[in-house]
């Protein structure tokens, strides 16, 4: 259905607003349903409740938020959006463009958000100069997580290049240990793929191939190697990976059923929820070859244009999410680092501290880019074009040559 049709229907019904929410409550759509994610959203819920705002939960499970976005669209089409929703960067732009989102500039100006939100995030939080979303975190999707006991017992060192990764995985496989825990969902495969693109091609190649969607880069020798490496990864996962959630793959690494996982730092939230210490039972290292660069994804909360009686609650929620103490507590549970650049990092674990320091260095080197898998590199239709090919390749015996051809074609078609 066309967005303008949706918009007409939604505007007509929006004034009525959601039946569930009232002037004293916020109904919040999100996809944070794993152990660590649930703990983090609990921090927000508690914070709002302490301000006299009742929380109405609209959780739609499914990592990466694909299912949540589908559910949200259905609500918006029916003219009954929630008070607030979780969005990834490009989705904020999309929904703002369709005039669904409330202007938060009033509170942003009062609290001088311009000073504390890094420019890379302002790009998504602002639409036509007005704030329409509040960033809550900065996640880094390109990490490698390793079971410390398996690595110690087998005298292995964390791999820092893809060749080292393959050698390590081969050794593990030969000993009958599952090298890689993975789930089978497009966002998980794309999370691994973008780490391989950055790791094998470097930051300039990532910029060209992913941010600029340059067709020549798709057909390059480097991209062939990227798909070769993806085929290698496929050989390191178990037979039951299809449809598995990312957090179940994480628990395989925590339990020692698998040695490694390529995933973002929301993994840390699972470790913490399982009473572990990131960097101790499960080691963290940036994905092979990606040292010096920083891919990011940020979760934003945006407010829908709903009845005027709920505007005060929306502005209070926006201000609460930006509160520095809240950002510290929330991100300690979530595994990410604060979106505000002025929150002290002393309470964060070693991986969190590394993330903050790496972000600073990569910013200075101009090597900070949005994640494709997590909605910060391309608008939805173009992102889908990439993910379809990545998933198709990973789940079949498609050759690297056919994959690069398909990718080049899909990207041109999605322009
Ligand atoms: C990301 C999101 C994270 C994390 C992950 C898995 O897209 O930004 O907060 O929850 O999905 O669900």
Q: What percentage of residues falls in helices of 4 or more residues?
A: 40-55%
> Can you count the helices?
19
CATH architecture assignment name of the largest domain: 3-Layer(aba) Sandwich
Gyration radius, to the nearest Å?
21 Å
What is the typical, i.e. mean, pLDDT?
A: 94
- Envelope shape: globular
Function: Part of a binding-protein-dependent transport system for a sugar.
Protein name: Probable sugar-binding periplasmic protein
Keywords: Signal, Transport
Family: Belongs to the bacterial solute-binding protein 1 family.
Topology, please?
Blueprint (H helix, E strand, L loop, with lengths): L2 H12 L10 E6 L4 H16 L3 E6 L6 H12 L6 E5 H9 L7 H6 L2 H4 L2 H7 E2 L2 E2 L1 E3 L1 E2 L4 E5 H6 L8 H13 L11 H26 L3 H4 L2 H14 L11 H10 L4 E4 L2 H8 L8 E5 L7 E3 L2 E5 L7 H12 L1 H11 L2 E2 L11 H15 L3 E3 L9 H15 L5 H15 L1
Parallel strand pairs: 1-2, 1-3, 11-14
Antiparallel strand pairs: 3-12, 4-5, 6-12, 7-13, 8-9, 8-10
Helix pairs in contact: 2-14, 2-16, 10-12, 10-18, 12-19, 18-19
Describe the structure.
With 415 residues, this protein is α/β, with parallel strands linked by helices. Helices cover 52% and strands 13% of the residues. The chain has a five-stranded mixed β-sheet, sandwiched between helices. β4 and β5 form a beta hairpin. Bound molecules: beta-D-galactopyranose (GAL). Belongs to the bacterial solute-binding protein 1 family.
